[in-house]
Amino acid sequence: MNRRLIFRREQWKVAEPFVIARGSKTIAETIVVEIKSGALSGRGEAVPYPRYGESVEGSLAAVEAMENAVAAGLDRHGLQRQMPPGAARNALDAALWDLEAKETDTSVWELAGIEEPHPLTTAFTLSLDTPERMAAAAAENAERPLLKLKLGGAGDVERVQAVRHAVPHARIIVDANESWTEDQLAEFAPVLGELGVLLIEQPLPEGRDGALALLPHPVPICADESCHASDGVAALVGRYDFVNVKLDKTGGLTEALLVCEAARAHGIGIMVGCMVAGSLAMAPALVLAQRATFVDLDGPLLLARDRQPGLRYDGSTVYPPKPNLWG
Prior knowledge:
Blueprint: E1 3-20, E2 23-37, E3 40-46, H1 56-64, H2 67-71, H3 76-82, H4 87-103, H5 108-112, E4 120-121, E5 124-126, H6 131-140, E6 146-150, H7 156-166, E7 171-175, H8 182-194, E8 197-201, E9 221-223, E10 242-245, H9 247-250, H10 253-265, E11 269-272, H11 279-288, E12 294-295, E13 313-314, E14 317-318
Parallel strand pairs: 5-6, 6-7, 7-8, 8-9, 9-10, 10-11, 11-12
Antiparallel strand pairs: 1-2, 2-3, 4-14, 13-14
Helix pairs in contact: 1-4, 6-7
């Protein structure tokens, strides 16, 4: 077996500054991995996330350290044992799925035992801002059936009220990115329920979310930062109603499938989300998202331009990847 590993960093300009509770970005930095085997190649893209102690440089170094293992025929299951969850493993895992599909002349969804993917409705994310500006952004996207609002603590009820007034018929989910206190959650959640919010994502900081077991949930609560891989799902029981499964957290589709299996076994709903990145990063998540209640795969919609060929987006409807992209 003669396999060659190629890897690089890429930068993608964000269409508008992307602002959440812990900061903002105007550039999306990703790592791209390609595994070549003869005339065939498999690709994967991932987003190192500083919140989890990751950097582009560190992730590329972790990929490079796997060069000999890849050349020797490393498969997805061996990768799980040799690397921890995170962006570096995600990029390699995606490349191995893509390459395996090409080598076996089949599709990733068939390899994964999932029904053929169909188009899905994705959330569209509105950055954290003043109530007036968030309402204006919502009005500009009033045709989108599902909006995700980034929140940040004080003033969040006013933000949601302004958006609801601007788009009275839109479905709304919110993401606090660990920015609320217990008192704010107790105060905000009933009001957000009255405003028709469908889901509250990660209101309390990871490690300080035990209060979720004691507080009522007038709106279902979704774990993000509090769950990365399948071994963390059981700890969500009694605290969270949903888990946001992101490939950059799980370290790839291989582990993400196990997270979904564990969530279903524990009666926890599934959301499939993403970091800000292009279509190559979204493609494996679209396979995973076929059975999710909430889908948040709008990364390419937030960029000034996407890679070509990319995924097809028709408004908020995203179509499965074509083989010339991935899978």
